[in-house]
From TrEMBL:
The lineage of its organism: Eukaryota, Fungi, Dikarya, Ascomycota, Pezizomycotina. PANTHER family: PHD FAMILY PROTEIN (PTHR21540:SF0), RING FINGER AND SWIM DOMAIN-CONTAINING PROTEIN 2 (PTHR21540). SUPFAM superfamilies: RING/U-box (SSF57850). Residues 75-84 have a biased composition (Basic and acidic residues). Residues 1-100 are annotated as: Disordered. This is Uncharacterized protein. Residues 7-30 have a biased composition (Low complexity).
Amino acid sequence: MGVQDVPAAPAYGSHSAYASSSAYPSQPYALDTYATRMPAQSGSRKRKAPDTGLSNRGAVIDLTQEGSPKKRRSHDLVVDEDLKSKKKGKRSQDEERRLRRWRKHAPTSYLEIRDRALTQRMFALDRQRDTSNPMHPTETVTLAGTTGNVYNITIDKVPSCDCPHARKGNQCKHIAYVLSRVLRVSAELEYQLAFTSSELKLIFAKAPPLPSETAEADGDKQDGNRKPLEGECPICCVDFEPESGEATLYCKAACGNNIHRECFRQWAATKKGGSVPCPFCRSPWQDDGNDVKQVARTGAKNAEGYVNVASQLGLNGRRDYSSYHSYWVRQQAMRGGLDWDEDGVMMHGS
């Protein structure tokens, strides 16, 4: 084959058939077309904000001090929490902390104990109040229980008793008796396990006066019920001698007759099975507490280690289990902790 003649390529930009073809436009025409179409394409995009010159001067300061609603709400919540915490801290500093949880109502367990305490015979032999700290007064009551055992009950921020039941951490009937019958506290405080200092002051302010306070208030004055101190004592048959300063008592219940204090103690020790009557009119004797205060000191200790004055107070010394929980009674009987006397009454083994 012979060599074919190939036409030389036209020069760039020359007006040839290829240059006029719409399929392959020349380069200068293509650049011009792209440049003319750019504004149309960019017009559909979001136009940038004009430069005001503030971008190079730092961030804009909000002088209104108001952020977005969400930020304002979160800020307000933080402020509220701070105020609440401050108020709570102030209350905790001003108010005294109760050592036991406040009871909104009397639990069933307490009602059973209270019923047992107020239906059994117990005697308040002595009351001693400690006011060395006026902001924190206390009172200790010496109480003869139902079996004649003498217990010490202290009414403090946390009331306590030295009986076996209370030593195990239970609320005993002796504390319930003292609060309800001796001190006569208000209903909402009677079943509490702890008191504040202000509540203690309120309890003792409204409690019946101490025997010593009553005696000091009366002094040597004679009221309308007491008869003149003359004649003889019905127990020892010896004339009264007021000038000697001897201690005497009189019947406050009815007749107003007088008796030597020591003679009355001997009289009371012989009485059994009931309250001590007046030697004259036989009315139940009303004393101020000092008349039988020494009884606990003369009683002998029993096997449990407590002073027992059952014989002096006319008690039989038996513990009544009729109001105790039946399950506990059965468990104690199975362990040999309970026994029965000749009358068929349950007694404690010790």
